[in-house]
């Protein structure tokens, strides 16, 4: 190996280790995802950033926890009408059109819970407001079904 090749390898290793955050191991990933979940429920944006920086998965679907089973952090924030948290999660890479249990998207859940104030910001961030859930129910349909006339408009 030439001296030039060794120098390039050293720089690659140095660059890789100095710029990439540590990757979560399988052993602590669930713990980090729960930390993220707790931060979202607590509306603690700073802790959300920290959890993701430490390796929590912004699109992690939790089977149990503080909110309904099998939804992601974005879905919880949208269903609670928490625009600030939705924007933070979107900035961190949350999948805006991710479908979870029953095919629900964040827009669908916001519509179901009458969170009119969430539909527009989600659409502005790039979410599809017409994605149907399983059984073909759309956000507009579920809004009207639950009597959320403002959301339908």
Summary?
The protein is an all-alpha fold and 153 residues long.
Description:
With 153 residues, the chain is mainly α. Helices cover 56% and strands 0% of the residues. Helix 6 runs antiparallel to helix 7. The longest helix has 17 residues. About 12% of the residues have low confidence.
Task: Please give the structural blueprint.
Blueprint: H1 3-19, H2 26-41, H3 45-53, H4 73-79, H5 83-91, H6 106-112, H7 116-125, H8 139-145, H9 149-152
Helix pairs in contact: 2-3, 4-5, 4-6, 5-7, 6-7, 6-8
Keywords:
globular; mainly alpha; 153 residues
- How many H/I helical runs? 9
Give unreliable regions as ranges: 5-22
Gyration radius over CA: 19 Å
Average predicted local confidence, pLDDT = 80
Question: What amount of the residues lies in strands?
Answer: under 5%
């Amino acid at each position: 190996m030439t001296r030039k090749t060794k120098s390039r390898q050293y720089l690659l290793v140095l660059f890789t280790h100095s710029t990439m955050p540590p990757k979560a191991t399988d052993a602590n990933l669930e713990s980090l995802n729960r930390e993220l979940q707790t931060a979202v429920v607590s509306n603690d944006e700073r802790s959300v950033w920290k959890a993701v920086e430490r390796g929590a998965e912004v699109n992690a679907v939790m089977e149990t926890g503080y909110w309904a089973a099998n939804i992601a952090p974005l879905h919880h924030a949208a269903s609670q009408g928490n625009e600030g948290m939705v924007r933070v999660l979107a900035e961190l890479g949350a999948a805006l059109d991710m479908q979870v249990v029953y095919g629900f998207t964040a827009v669908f859940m916001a519509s179901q819970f009458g969170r009119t104030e969430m539909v527009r910001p989600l659409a502005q961030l790039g979410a599809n407001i017409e994605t149907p859930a399983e059984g073909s129910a759309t956000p507009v349909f579920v809004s009207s079904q639950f009597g959320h006339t403002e959301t339908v408009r």
